[in-house]
Amino acid sequence: MTDQAAVRDALAPRDLHAFIAGLPKAELHVHHVGSASPRIVSELAARHPDSKVPTDPEALADYFTFTDFAHFIEVYLSVVDLIRTPEDVRLLTYEVARDLARQQVRYAELTITPFSSTRRGIEERAFMDAIEDARKAAETEFGTILRWCFDIPGEAGLVSAEETVRLATDDAVRPEGLVSFGLGGPEIGVPRPQFKPYFDRAIAAGLRSVPHAGETTGPETVWDALTYLRAERIGHGTTSARDPKLLAHLAEHRIPLEVCPTSNIATRAVRTLDEHPVKEFVKAGVLVTINSDDPPMFGTDLNNEYAAAARLLDLDERGVADLAKNAVEASFLDEPGKTRIKSEIDTYTTTWLAL
Ligand SMILES: Nc1ncnc2c1ncn2[C@@H]1O[C@H](CCC(=O)c2cccc(C(=O)O)c2)[C@@H](O)[C@H]1O
Ligand SMILES: [Zn+2]
Fold this sequence. Notes:
Layout: H1 3-11, H2 16-22, E1 25-31, H3 38-47, H4 57-63, H5 69-80, H6 86-102, E2 105-112, H7 114-118, H8 124-142, E3 145-153, H9 157-169, E4 178-184, H10 196-204, E5 208-209, E6 212-213, H11 219-227, E7 234-236, H12 244-252, E8 257-259, H13 261-266, H14 278-283, E9 288-290, H15 302-313, H16 317-330, H17 335-354
Parallel strand pairs: 1-2, 2-3, 3-4, 4-5, 6-7, 7-8, 8-9
Helix pairs in contact: 2-15, 6-8, 9-10, 16-17
The protein binds ligand V47 and zinc ion.
């Protein structure tokens, strides 16, 4: 071992957490408002004293403890209420990009719910300018590429679907960084087929379909997302593990699952991490990507999600690097960009293992 390696060994922990921290990554399932750090949320809460969101980061940690999925949505919307001006939007987006860059995220598809902001009075062009301004600044200053997914807040119904697809397809409004179209919010009482016309319009406009499904309802919701919404990836897809035919279909057609382990525990979709079905997904040959969903709300970050997946799947450095390459491959980044990041992952891993 060279002197340099000996010194490096003595200084840095060689455990998997250290490897993950430096590993170039891509994140495909992470929400804009859901990524507001405690510092940002408390700063915004201080600007709006009428809000019930705590300003003190300690109290915020308790506030972000959920009894069930409906409670999570209620808390989520109270944070949405803090985003009131285009300046709030730009600050939030830029800071989310900084947090992603700190975790060596080279590329992220950030899910934004524009309906929730325009209906709260933020003018649509100003909203789009704010996110685009932050996206360009992030790429220049952090080297992190951001793309947008616009999603329908399903519980808000077809009015929100119409507004979301208009904002996503009207050339006078849609932002340059928009690549995909999604469907979020509660699944219970929100059947997927009703959104087919809106997804058809989004897909016809060149957007990729990535709805949430199988997070809080059964595998039939995942089938519906595939059949009616022509999903190219599935947000969560947790209950797919209950249907071997669905697992076989996802594997055969290379339809990736955007797995968010800690999210599923925090929203009580899955009881404990050890009971998470990600092992079943891998055993069935399904393409698994690891994501953080709403990291500060769930007391996690992307690196922690990779560490959780490594433990559940008993992975070494090469196994973790493969997970990272899965996400790059499943992304909607152009081929040269994918090749570049995958090559960076390979170089990083080879260098790490050689030390
Ligand atoms: N794990 C998650 N699973 C699912 N969704 C998640 C997850 N994390 C974050 N979201 C986001 O929560 C939003 C929910 C917004 C919503 O339900 C709603 C209902 C009624 C009115 C309004 C409004 O704005 O007026 C909004 C979704 O759009 C989605 O982007
Ligand atoms: Zn989500």
